[in-house]
């Protein structure tokens, strides 16, 4: 199965993106994960720009979602909310009908950010019939250095947790509901 993993952080040393890359590395050959960490490159959404076709960067992302069996979304919290770049990406994807039947789950790289998570659950449950709120991966990495993250996520227990999450998500993507 193939999954797309979208990071809501545009930061170079993002802990959110690091978690998604760790999922990518933990995947067995049966699963391929592509990490999308370029929400910052999408233009600001406007309904005026939807027609005749969305901008190339948006179409590329929408196509990557259409080609994937499922979508993993991970994001930091900014001012108790979804960062603007990620919300902008979701606005574009709604306008492209790219999310409606897509299985979606959340991963989160912080022990904080529950206001943002609540908003993301509301938004993703609105745009997709297959958002699975119960399936959730949380690995607290906030303020850790890339070296500390690599050390933590390479431990057997972390690898088992990541692989278990992917296995459960793959089963959900393959099921009818
Ligand atoms: C502008 C800004 C606003 C933030 N607001 C919050 C917040 O409201 N609540 C919170 O828990 N963390 C907040 N943070 C901290 C980030 O959510 C936290 O550092 C996160 O782990 C960063 O993720 P990243 O490493 O993937 O970029 C904020 C950070 C920035 C830069």
DSSP helical segment count = 6
The arrangement of helices and strands along the chain is EHEHEHEHEHH
Helix- and strand-based class? alpha/beta
Largest sheet features:
5 strands, parallel
Instruction: State mean pLDDT (0 to 100 scale).
Output: 96
Fourth-level CATH superfamily: Flavodoxin domain
Q: Please tell me what the overall shape is.
A: globular
Describe the structure.
This protein has 177 residues and is α/β, with parallel strands linked by helices. It has one domain: Rossmann fold, CATH 3.40.50.360. The chain is 44% helix and 16% strand. It is built from six helices and five strands. The protein has a five-stranded parallel beta sheet, with helices on both faces. Helix 4 links the parallel strand 4 and strand 5. Helix 1 (15-26) packs parallel to helix 5 (146-153). The two termini are 17 Å apart. The model has no long low-confidence stretch (mean pLDDT 96). Flavin mononucleotide binds at residues 9, 11, 14-16, 76-80, 109-110, 112-113, 142.
């Amino acid at each position: 199965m193939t999954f797309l993993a979208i990071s809501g952080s545009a930061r170079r040393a993002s802990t959110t993106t690091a978690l998604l890359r760790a999922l990518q590395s933990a995947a067995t050959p049966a699963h391929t994960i592509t990490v999308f960490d370029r929400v910052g490159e999408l233009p600001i959404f406007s309904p005026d720009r939807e027609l005749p076709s969305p901008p190339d960067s948006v179409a590329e992302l929408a196509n990557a979602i259409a080609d994937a069996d499922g979508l993993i979304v991970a994001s930091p919290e900014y001012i108790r909310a979804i960062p603007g770049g990620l919300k902008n990406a979701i606005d574009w994807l709604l306008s492209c009908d790219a999310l409606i039947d897509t299985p979606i789950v959340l991963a989160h790289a912080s022990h904080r950010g529950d206001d943002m998570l609540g908003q993301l659950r509301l938004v993703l449950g609105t745009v997709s019939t297959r958002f699975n709120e119960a399936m959730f991966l949380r690995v607290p990495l906030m303020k850790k250095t890339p070296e500390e993250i690599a050390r933590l996520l390479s431990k057997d227990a972390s690898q088992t947790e990541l692989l278990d999450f992917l296995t459960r998500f793959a089963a959900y993507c393959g099921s009818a509901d």
